[in-house]
Amino acid sequence: MTAPVLTAEDLGKRFKRREGPTTLLGTFAGRFSPAATEAFWALRHVSFAVAEGEMLGVIGSNGSGKTTLLRCLSQVLRPDEGHVSAAHPVNGLLDLNAGMHNELTGRENLFISGSILGLLMREIHDRYDSIVDFAELGHAIDQPLRTYSAGMKLRLGFSVAIHADPKILLVDEVLAVGDLAFQTKCLDRIREMKQAGMSIVLISHDLGQIEGMCDRALWLRRGALEYEGPPRDAVAAYRAGFDAASAALTPTEAVPDAGQDGLRLGDNRIGSMGAVVSDVRLTGPSADPGGIPVLRPGDPLRLTARISRRDPALASAHFHVGVAAEDGTRAFEFNSATDGHEIVLRDGDQPVSLFFDRLDLAPGRYLLTVGLLEADWTHALDLHRDAYPFEIADGPNGTGPLSPPRNWSFGEV
What angle do CA 333, 339, 342 make, to 5 degrees? Predict the structure, then answer.
C-alpha cells in the first residue's frame, strides 16, 4: 500500500448512557431520583489506514460504532483515546443538509453549503451550472428549501459536496435516500473521483456495494474491529456472524408454514420469528403452476409473499432478496432499505410484491433467498436461505452467473 493519507490509531470514543427518568415529569414520578449515568465505549482500539485512491468499506449492525467512527475521522467528534491524522482536509457526507435553511431558496443554500465546504465565492459561481445540472434541480433552484422533497434535498447536498473536489471523502449511508436512478448516478461519480485519486471511506448496508466498489473492508462489532481485509472476506465474516446470531434466536417449536416445501427450521430457515414470511411464490412468463419457474436470459420474474407480525413490539423491518447459482456463487442481493423503501409492520398479513423487469443470468439452476431482517441489522426475523429454485434455460454461456445481452459484429463497425 502507498503512503496513507488517512490514519486512525487506537481510536476510542466513550459516551454516557442515562438510565431512569430523563424528563421533569419522570423525575417527579420517581420521587426526585436523578437519572443514573453509565459510561460505555461506542468505539475502542480501532486502527487502520487509507491510501490515496483507495476505497475502504465499513460494515456492521446499527450500534456497532460505524457512524461514531466517521464522525471521529471528520473531527465532528474528538476521540477519548487515540488520534486521527489526515494529509488533506476530510469531507464527510454524513448529513448532506447540515447548514441548510428551509426558508432560503435552493440557490441560496447552494452558496452557503459551498462556502461551508471551503469553496471561494468565485469557485461556487464557476461551478454553479454544473452543480445544478448534476442535482437535476434547474426547475426548482429558486424555490424555498421547505418545498423540496427529501430526494431533492439529497441531490442538492450531494452535488455541492462532490463539486468541492474533496481529496478524502466519508460517506455514511446518505445514498439510501432518493430514487435508484440518482443513487446510481452518485455511485458512478464516486467511482470516477476514486479513479482520479480520491480516498473514500464508505459505510453501507448494501454488502454487494461493498464487495463491488471497495478495495478493503472493516467489520465493526460492538465498537471493536472484528475483521479487516479483502471485501469479500469481510462480508463473508459478517454474514457468518449475522447467521450465527440469527440461528441462536431461532425457536425450536413449529412456526407458521411458509407455503413452500423444503423449509427446515434451524437449517435453511433461521431467525427470531418476531415476524414471518409466508406464501413465497415465483412467477415467470411461462411458469408451470406449482413447478419450478423456467426462464430464458432477460425474461421477467415476479416474486410475491406475505409478511405477518408475531411480536407486536416490532415496528419495522427490512425485506432481503438474494440470488445465487447452485454452486454458491452469488449473482446479486439487495434489500428494501438500500432500495429506499421502509416496511412498516402492522397487524394482519401484509402482501409484498417484487418485479424483476429482466434477469440477465447465464443458463443454469439458481436459488433465491428471501427474508425479513431486524431494523437494526443485528439478526434475521425470518430468513429463508437458498430456499426457492428457478432455472434459466438456453441463452449464451460465459464465466460466472451474469449474462448481459450482447451482439457481435466483425469487419465494419
Answer: 115
Beta 90-93 vs 168-172: how paired, if at all? Answer: parallel
Same domain, 267 and 240: no
Query: CA end-to-end span of the chain, whole Å?
Result: 41
Residues 208 and 257 in one domain: no
The contacts of residue 26 (CB under 8 Å, 6+ apart) are 20, 35
Residues 6 or more apart whose CB falls under 8 angstroms from that of 242 comprise 61, 377, 378, 379, 380
Q: Which residues does residue 383 pair with via DSSP β-bridges, in sequence order? A: 270, 371
Tell me if 179 is assigned to some domain: no
Q: List the beta bridge partners of residue 212.
A: none
Percent of the chain residues topping a pLDDT of 70: 87
**CATH number of residue 19's parent domain:** 3.40.50.300
In this prediction, residues 181-186 reach a mean pLDDT of 81
Residue ranges making up the domain that contains 290? 251-392
Q: Are 244 and 262 in the same domain? A: no
Q: What is the pLDDT of residues 314-346, one digit of tens each?
A: 999 999 999 999 888 888 888 898 887 889 999
> Strand, coil or helix: what is 127?
helix
Q: Structural domain tally of the chain?
A: 2
Whole-number percent of the chain with pLDDT over 90 = 56
Residue 168, SS3 per DSSP: strand
Q: Has residue 183 been placed in a domain?
A: no
Q: Which residues contact 243 (CB under 8 A, 6 or more apart)?
A: 270, 380, 385
Instruction: Assess whether 68 and 204 both reside in one domain.
Output: yes
Q: Are residues 330 and 367 in the same domain?
A: yes
Q: What is the pLDDT of residue 142?
A: 96
Q: Report the length, in residues, of the chain.
A: 413
Say if residue 346 is exposed, middle or buried (CB neighbours under 10 Å; 0-12, 13-18, 19+).
exposed
